[in-house]
Write a structure and sequence with these properties.
This protein is of the alpha+beta class and 339 residues long. It is 21% helix and 33% strand. The radius of gyration is 22 Å and the shape is globular.
């Protein structure tokens, strides 16, 4: 059900700076921590003896001590100490380890074939650490299959209805909307242009009451990381000038029915205004947590399955990007399974 050979977000680097990160990813427990030299290390998150959660144990330097029976493991996953009996190290006691990269504010973990990790780049999230942008961060646990969230993000027709009072408005429909789909290699692009519209209620504090051309260019990088290049420009003005709000949507399947959703939204305006940070964070939270998440969750409940195609849904022309993404992921997962 999941593509293992890919980089998944385990959390933000500032989270790891604050302490170890424990997540269930692709239905496997994973623990990420800083070793004695400051580098990130990632291992399976449960003890192979009785499967106790290792994040509840003691992590000191390069060692992890199980909170249940005291087995000790090093950063490479090897069991190095058994406090019981004659101290013999049991068979099958080593932890699985995973490649991990810290890049541009994100902690990435590779859960598949380690030999393939080095040849696969992580997604560019440069705006997160670019001093030209102010960035707010968020996290959601979504009770739905991750592909339903990908569908939602590649289809930017829904904001005019679902987000009409936050990040969009009913004006962003009909002849005002222009959509272009393209696929470049394994990257699926879904690009939208909304011509000569008013700023949405949530973004009016940044743009004012001027009319604008809004460009919203979403791209899926398999397995499940999406980057939105969002721009508000003067009507008929150059698209390299204006308000830029790049947004990262980094999805990680927890299991078949729940998804970790990490997001970060940057802006290139009033970057030193901390009060504006709170406004933008609230706009993002409302759109993602109060509007998107309940709708996606309830769609999952109504469907009763994560296999959208099995239900033979009605299709709109603007569904092309989401459909192509599903077909692409199905193919990649099937090819991985045949290795």
């Amino acid at each position: 059900m999941f593509l293992k050979n890919g980089w998944y977000c385990a959390g933000w680097m500032h989270e790891l700076d604050a302490g170890p990160i424990a997540r269930r990813m692709l239905d496997m427990p994973v623990l990420v921590f800083r070793a004695a030299d400051g580098a990130a290390a990632a291992v399976q998150g449960n003890c192979p003896h009785r499967f106790a959660p290792l994040h509840r144990g003691t992590i000191a330097g390069d060692t992890i001590t199980c909170p249940y029976h005291g087995l000790v493991f090093d950063r490479g996953g090897r069991c190095i100490h058994n406090p019981h009996g004659d101290g013999e190290l049991p068979k099958n006691a080593d932890l699985r380890t995973y490649p991990v990269i810290e890049s541009q504010g994100v902690v990435w973990v590779w859960l598949g074939d380690p030999a393939l990790a080095a040849e696969t780049p992580v997604v560019d999230t440069g705006f997160v650490v670019d001093p030209a942008y102010a960035t707010v961060f968020g996290y959601l646990s979504v009770e739905a299959h991750y592909q339903l969230i990908i569908d939602n993000l590649l289809d930017l027709t829904h904001p005019a209805i679902l987000h009409a009072n936050s990040i969009s408005s009913p004006e962003y429909m009909g002849e005002k909307m222009h959509h272009r789909f393209r696929q470049e290699g394994q990257v699926v692009h879904s690009d939208y242009l909304f011509k000569d519209v008013a700023a949405s209620p949530g973004l009016a504090p940044l743009w004012g009451d001027r009319r604008t051309d809004v460009r919203a260019m979403m791209a899926l990088y398999p397995p499940s990381s999406l980057m939105l290049d969002f721009r508000m420009n003067e009507v008929d003005g150059p698209d390299d000038e204006g308000l830029f709000l790049p947004t990262a949507h980094l999805l990680v399947p927890e299991n078949e029915r729940r998804t970790h959703y990490f997001y970060a939204m940057g802006r290139n305006a009033a970057i030193d205004n901390r009060g504006l940070d709170a406004i933008i964070a609230d706009v993002a939270r409302k759109a993602f947590a109060e509007e998107d998440e309940p709708m996606i969750r309830e769609c999952q409940e109504m469907m009763g399955t994560h296999d959208l195609f099995a239900l033979k849904p009605a299709m709109l022309k603007t569904d092309v990007a989401a459909v192509r993404a599903r077909l692409l992921l199905d193919r990649l997962i099937a090819e991985e399974g045949g290795r």
